[in-house]
Amino acid sequence: MTQESSPFLLKASPTTRWLVVGPALVLPLLASFFYFVLFPGTSFGNGFYAAIKVFLLVWPPLATLVILRESLRREMPHLIGRRRSMLWGALFGIGIVGLMLALKEFSPMGALMEQNGARVREKVDGLGMLDHFALAACAISIVHAALEEFYWRWFVYGNLRHLVPQPWAHVIAAVGFMSHHIVITSQFFPLGFAIFLGVCVGIGGAFWSWLYQRHKSLWGPWFSHMLIDFGIFWIGYRLLFSH
After folding, report:
1. What are the sequence ranges of the domains in the chain?
2. What is d(CA 136, CA 140) in angstroms, rounded to the nearest whole number?
3. How far apart are CA 156 and CA 17, in angstroms?
């Protein structure tokens, strides 16, 4: 069933591994409805937001050590592997940011974003980010991107690849990664556009899991993720503060 034989990853049964990775796939999606759709900007909604971020941080090591009874140490990349991972991650990130900027300036997507600018501003203000936009951009682009790579690539994909064929592991992890992003973007933009953006997120997630698998390092996926998030915040800044 698995395509690898790492002694760190093959101690638990497939059933146990599904019990660990199943909640990891769906809980971020379910939580996003509470903190971003049903109770946005409320103490209850903010509590859900905080809880899911704690879950993203705590569940991978807790489940790995206590339930799977496996080591947190997986593949240890050579220096060349880390450098190649960073290079490919940087190229992908720069390419996607360039594409986003081009679409914003030279396609109907730019007009659609402008039409929904007031909606975006209202949501960002409701989250308390409008007055601290630069700080939020740095925290989400650097720290939160690292957390998501640890969670979605190292933990979710890292377990799925031992349960299903590797291509399906990439797909399932990417679908889990994009699903809550569709919920979030649907609160900023029309549903069709939100689904399009979510699919783009899923493609990025699949590339990052491939990059992690290829070079056995999270450095490249994290760096790539960081660049793209900064690009998104730059577009958001121009949308919110340039008028």
Report:
1. 14-241
2. 6
3. 10
> Distance between terminal CA atoms of the chain?
55
Residue 121 in 3-state DSSP? helix
Reduce the DSSP state of residue 204 to 3 states and report it: helix
**Please, what is the Cα angle at 157 between 204 and 93, to 5 degrees?**
20
**Closest-CA residue to 27 (of 163, 153, 183):** 183
Picking from 142, 206, 218, the residue whose alpha carbon sits closest to that of residue 177 is 206
* Alpha carbons 195 and 166: distance in angstroms, whole number: 25
The tokens of 215 are what? 């070079």
pLDDT in tens, 202-232: 999 999 999 999 999 999 999 999 999 999 9
| Rounded distance between C-alpha atoms, residue 81 and residue 87, angstroms | 10
Torsion of Cα atoms, 80 then 85 then 91 then 94, to 10°: -130
Tokens 């939020």 belong to 136
pTM for this entry: 0.90
